Input
Amino acid sequence: MSRRVDLKVGFRCNNYCHFCVQGDKRERLPAKEPAELYRALEEGRAGGATGVVITGGEPTLHKEIVAIARRARELGYALIQVQSNGRTFCYEAFCRRLIDAGVNEFGPSLHGSTPKIHDFLTGAPGAFLQTVSGIRLLKTLGQRVITNSVITKTNYRDLPDLARLLVALGADQFQFAYMHMSGRAGENQRWLAARKTLIEPYVKKALDVGIAAGRTVMTEAIPYCRMSGYEDYVAERIIPDTRIYDADCVIPDYTRARVDEGKARGPRCAECDWHDVCEGPWREYPELFGWDEFVPVRKKAVAAAGKGS
Ligand code: SF4
Output
């Protein structure tokens, strides 16, 4: 039984992110028909799901996005989230239609604290202004906003400033996700991917900003050995069981798919005290950078060293 359905409604997008994982699906695949999407929503509910994340591509470009949200509400989903690049959230009438249809959580993405960084990474001049305006607008409409930011070589030094901006905008929760080097992100990995040892202090400073402001914060795809002292913020601990309606297949258990196919553990991971719960990095990471940054953690040794200091 999956608690959540991830419903990909189509892969068109008005951004062209350098770190996009969806490859050429935007050109190859048409938007899914409403009937197919409604069937997926029904199947998910019958399987016990209480939450749906409507995503893509950019789901707000789907002509029937409002009807899809309404159908989810009719079926009894308690959580209805739209995960988006956030640009269309700057239009108040559109946001009100989504809210009236039943959307009760908004998941825009923001990848930098300045137009220069965000617009470069998303390949879309003006995107920063629209997404930031969208977050501000949704908060004035009393909505819950949870954001995602992809960590790359272009923006990792900016993460603390980005966190300060997200706090100022009123985001309820923010997540920093290490880029997954698949699709376009895979093509760009040599200039876009940063080593995890390099990003670590900036990620932790950015988390500190959110923690001090009382926001829910987390990271994704950064194993515990690079999160020392911040292990509670590893998102993989709490990602709900999710059934994904992908481009042309259904992934019944996303956690299993991540662990069995998406992620990898290294030659020394068996020695680590986090071994049973850690998913490891996306498997493309060690193919590029090797395993030397992933050093097994001995929790007892860490605790003893803490007492001695
Ligand atoms: S199991 Fe491996 S990747 Fe995970 S925290 Fe331990 S050393 Fe790091």
Notes: The pocket of iron/sulfur cluster is lined by residues 223-225, 265-266, 269, 272, 274-275, 278, 280, 294, 296-297 (CB under 6 Å).
